[in-house]
Amino acid sequence: xxxxxxxxxxxxxxxxxxxxxxxxxxxxxxxxxxxxxxxxxxxxxxxxxxxxxxxxxxxxxxxxxxxxxxxxxxxxxxxxxxxxxxxxxxxxxxxxxxxxxxxxxxxxxxxxxxxxxxxxxxxxxxxxxxxxxxxxxxxxxxxxxxxxxxxxxxxxxxxxxxxxxxxxxxxxxxxxxxxxxxxxxxxxxxxxxxxxxxxxxxxxxxxxxxxxxxxxxxxxxxxxxxxxxxxxxxxxxxxxxxxxxxxxxxxxxxxxxxxxxxxxxxxxxxxxxxxxxxxxxxxxxxxxxxxxxxxxxxxxxxxxxxxxxxxxxxxxxxxxxxxxxxxxxxxxxxxxxxxxxxxxxxxxxxxxxxxxxxxxxxxxxxxxxxxxxxxxxxxxxxx
Length: 383
Description:
This protein is an alpha/beta fold. The protein folds into two domains: 8-223, Spore Coat Polysaccharide Biosynthesis Protein SpsA, Chain A (Alpha-Beta Complex), CATH 3.90.550.10; 226-270 and 304-378, no CATH class. It is built from 13 helices and twelve strands. The chain has helices at 18-29, 50-57, 72-82, 101-109, 172-177, 190-200, 226-244, 247-269, 284-297, 307-335, 341-344, 359-371, 374-378, and strands at 8-14, 37-44, 62-66, 87-91, 95-97, 115-122, 128-130, 133-135, 141-143, 158-159, 167-171, 205-215. Strands 1, 2, 3, 4, 5, 6, 7, 10, 11 and 12 form a ten-stranded mixed sheet that branches. Strand 2, helix 2 (50-57) and strand 3 form a beta-alpha-beta unit. Helix 8 (247-269) packs antiparallel against helix 10.
């Protein structure tokens, strides 16, 4: 007698994604999966007629409606809480999937893991979008294989730090018991944080290349102002490292991460340090104190700066405001730690990955790694 396949609930978050829904759900309705499949669309306050389209064209899909955009993380969590399946799969609304997409994920879950990631290709299938996840030491997620035209290089399954939240599956009970996606992230890096958390808790995440999805890369993010995206992209990695590193490694990684963030902010604002230097060979009193008195009497000068650079400042400030809540989440995770950082770090794949290409940024990162003792933690370059 054939083994019964688990019921799966596929949760699709949606925010004004009407133009993507027909292709996404057409592919889901063509799934070749032998078990029960429940389709759930969680709508984040769309105003583009998405819900009307779903009611007219896909009446069997369960609709959950949020009055406002609560974010990707919250939409996924709400869908998971409402789901009836033993397994919950998450899929971006701007994706289409192969008929074996769901079978590939469920098969991977039966191999000892409790969370599995799809191979994600570009919409036309010409390039890899995601073939497993890594991370640099200060929390910026890395999409392995991104842009590679040779997808055959990524057909070997294996462990991965995280599953991309846009195409993944996880045991529903585990997802909820482990806290789901952190809703404070709103969007971006909530999947990195969740995958890392699972490894800390003693669980396992795998990459399942037999499960294939195709993605309109950044189709939703492209409609959001850069400075709003930038705040999330700066703040959320800081939140992730604060929660998931051991105390010893957090004390080394967090100050280095903050200082590197300031260096990146300087680049984005196009600041010239010479304009802010009192400089010269004058003594401290004349050069500093007198200079400050002069400046205090002068009118403050204004400068036009990029909003995206100001978002970096607000991101750090917001991170500080969230520290009490993050500290509670950190305590919960660390009290349940089942795996040391040393066993997880190899999954980062490229912990020294540079967020900026400037030579002086690379030099600054090297200095910080040595000063805070992270060189010893991360091991030699190219490990």
